[in-house]
Amino acid sequence: MKAKLVLESGDVFDGVLFGHNGDAEGEVVFNTSYTGYQEILTDPSYTGQIVAMTYPLIGNYGANTLDVESQKIWAAGFVVKELSEIHSNFAAEHSLDDFLKAHHIAGISGIDTRKLVRLLRTKGALRGVISASDDEPRLVERAKSIPQMVGLDLASSVSASAPYRLESPTATYNVVAFDYGIKRNILKLLVNSGCNVTVVPAKTTAAEVLAMKPDGVFLSNGPGDPEPLAYAIDTIKKLSDPKFAKRELPIFGICLGHQLVALAFGAETYKLKFGHHGSNHPVKNLSTGQIEITAQNHGFAVDLRSLPKHLELTHVNLYDHTVEGVRHKKLPVFSVQYHPEASPGPHDSHYLFAQFVNLMEEYRD
User: Fold this and answer.
1) Which of 46, 76, 201, 306 could form a disulfide with 26 if both were Cys (CB 3.0 to 4.6 A apart)?
2) What does pLDDT average to in each consecutive run of 10 residues of the chain (365 residues)?
3) 23: domain range?
């Protein structure tokens, strides 16, 4: 079935509908990963976004129940240059087309993704609609009516509704992990690092967390703008306050969690022009001088100029010199903007989980 991707700018891309026979709408962003489309689609951080893959051939290894990062597809829609008509992989259980159909998510193939990406890089992320309708003016107006990402609290809409626990057979530490849109591979790496993990909803209070007597607190990735999450910022302020927590509590944040740490200590955030989405972003570790190839998925960033004196810049993005990591100069609190758990992506940054464990050992009661 013929379909269109229509952007709020009035740009129109003709293609073919696949997946769910229906419409999709959201902020259109591009991802530069060669593989990992199943993990990308099921990453809660893509809530409210239509994802366009820059790699031209997508779907050739199918999909399965093992390589998902959550229980459902969170991306609003999917855009590819060429959808593979065959899939071949030992783990494949169904095609990408069937995977999208099962989750009622529409995709579009056959469009010029290079042109689309150049447009998004020039104009910035744009709201768009995937539809089989020919009424382009109406679709443009529909795209313009989609809520802007700035000011949206999406974390509370993807968070778990109740706490749950994962246990490690070699557990040495108890970690409370805030679910702002947490990915399964993060939990896997925490468990493999010797942690029993209690995952809690985004609006869990500091008092409730401290009652669980954690050795450390993890702040997860998630979608949307960090600034409206006043409840999370207030909780992080309290947990990082030795007077309130009655101890110095190790805290490790990634992605949205990183932005919330920065906001809690007085920094500011802003929306990037088209965001960072991919598994090949170079980041410099300022402590070691090493370059890490990282997985990234975020549309907001911490403003370097706003960093307070008690936060130290630890990592910087080599593409655009944006903030990729900070740590507190006195407290056991650190965070990174990128995804050290990858999935999909390289494993250069797994050492950060060991760093978290070492802090928990050092500051253990």
Assistant:
1) 76
2) 98 98 98 96 98 98 95 98 96 97 98 98 97 97 98 97 95 97 96 97 98 98 98 98 97 98 98 96 97 96 98 98 98 97 84 96 89
3) 2-145
User: Which residue carries 């890490």 as its tokens?
Assistant: 292
Residue after which a domain boundary falls, among 145, 174, 201: 145
pTM for the full model? Answer: 0.96
Chain CA centroid to CA 356, Å: 20
Helix (H/G/I), strand (E/B), else coil: 302: strand
Give the Cα separation of 17 and 55 in Å (integer).
18
CB-CB contact of 307 with 263 (8 Å) = no
Whole-number Å distance between alpha carbons of 255 and 276? 11
Structure tokens at 280: 């090949």
Instruction: Tell me: do 231 and 339 sit in the same domain.
Output: yes
- Cα 204 vs. chain centroid, distance in angstroms? 20
Same structural domain for residues 195 and 276?
Answer: yes
The β-bridge partners of 97 are: none
What are the residue numbers of the active site? 255, 339, 341
The residue type found at 293 is: I
Amino acid identity at 365: D
For 99, phi then psi, to 5°, come to -60, -45
From residue 242, how far is each of 183, 207, 326 by CA, in Å? 29, 13, 19
Whether residue 221 is found in the same domain as residue 80: no
Phi and psi (nearest 5°) for 236?
Answer: -65, -40
Please report whether residue 150 resides in a domain.
Answer: no
Element of type H or E holding 359: helix 351-362
Give the CATH number for residue 205: 3.40.50.880
Co-location of 110 and 258 in the same domain: no
For residue 241, count other CB atoms closer than 10 A to its CB.
Answer: 15
